[in-house]
Amino acid sequence: MNKEYVVAFAKKLLAIDSPTGYTKKAIDFVEEEAKRFGYQTKRNHKGNLWIYVKGNHHHKTLGLCAHCDTLGLMVRSIKSDGKLALTNLGGPIIPTLDGEYCRIYTRDGQCYSGTILSTSPAAHVYKDASTKKREIDEMEVRIDEVTYTKEDTQKLGIQNGDIVAIDPKVQITESGFIKSRFLDDKISVSALMGILHHLKENAITPAYDLIFMMSTYEEVGHGMAHIPDEIAELLAVDMGCIGLDLACTEQDVSICAKDSSGPYDYDLTSKLIELAKREAVSYAIDIYPQYGSDVSAARNAGNDIKGALIGPGVHASHGMERTHIDGVLNTMKLILAYICEE
Which residues are part of the catalytic machinery? Predict the structure, then answer.
């Protein structure tokens, strides 16, 4: 596995803002790379990307999915002093956003920088600066333009419904840790692209036809509600949970037995566990207490599939996230074993 490729790809993808509903640039980037490898691609009407890989056998098709959409914010309204009131896209941990830099994307193609702040941002002015609850209605964006009124901001072309993207603050440490917002799920997208790179570079043909799918609305629950009819099994590659009594670490691939949507397919999950043992992959089996995946969306929409969920352990999900390259590589090793198993 080429970890340098995966890390470099992840850094590029994480630098592309893609809050849920605003994913075209990220999907374009992933599709361009898939085409560079020579794979056929397609998009459905909602913008999900499908990448086709021919296998040795054609009587069964396996789907593998990750999501390019991230958490984010949207302009709810423009305040009288020119600052922006907000509504959240997906479920970011709102208190962690206080003081974060952001970018505002207008519908006419402008991009402005700003800072997300509490409505009581100054310790020298507000008695409740440190105690005020950091809830979405008490947060706002200070735009980096000369704007003191609602009219000033409107003249910039900013309007209700504009996207507010949060700076991911990507860092890669010498010890192998990957620190960034939105590792959920761009690190898994990068792992899947690393698999495609590995197949191409080593002339490996998987056992069955594959469709790699990158979804665009996972964070709001309907990313993979529609999938190609020919898919018999769907493997979601998404972040593994860490905390409470869960067994996973940032260096493991997590195999999820059950999440908030219910248990994953028993036989397919058992197969993944056996493959992890056979390949000497560092893994953990866990129950995710507050979680739903693209397999959940596909099953809830009535798709006739076996579904399973794996992914690298990610600490502090929906906040300032962190994983380790070992967890990503272990995830890739398990995926490779799965797609090459007859």
Answer: 218
Q: What is the 3-state secondary structure (H, E, C) of 296-313?
A: HHHHHCCCCCEEEEEEEE
Percent of the chain, pLDDT > 70? Answer: 100
CA dihedral 30, 33, 37, 38 (to 10 degrees): 70
How much is the pLDDT for 318? 98
Of 123, 65, 135, 41, nearest to 96 by C-alpha is 135
b/e sequence 49-78, b meaning 16+ C-beta within 10 Å: bbbebebeeeeebbbbbbbbbbbbbbbbeb
DSSP state of 206: -
Q: Compute the average pLDDT of residues 183-204.
A: 98
- Model confidence over 27-67: pLDDT tens digits? 999 999 999 999 999 999 999 999 999 999 999 999 999 99
pTM of the model: 0.97
d(CA 39, CA 132): 52
Q: Report the pLDDT value the prediction gives residue 68, as an integer from 0 to 100.
A: 98
Of 90, 122, 103, the C-alpha closest to 319 is: 90
Report the distance separating Cα 85 and Cα 81, nearest Å.
11
8 A C-beta contact, residue 161 and residue 76: no
Tokens 């070992």, residue located: 326
Q: How far is CA 60 from the centre of its chain?
A: 27
Sketch out the chain's domains with CATH numbers.
3-70+182-340 (3.40.630.10), 72-166 (2.40.30.40)
pLDDT tens-place string over residues 80-106? 999 999 999 999 999 999 999 999 999
CA 197 to CA 188: how far, in whole Å?
A: 14
Cis peptide bond N-terminal to 185, omega within 30: yes
Q: Distance between CA 40 and CA 163 in Å, rounded?
A: 31
Measured distance CA(87)–CA(89) in Å, rounded:
7
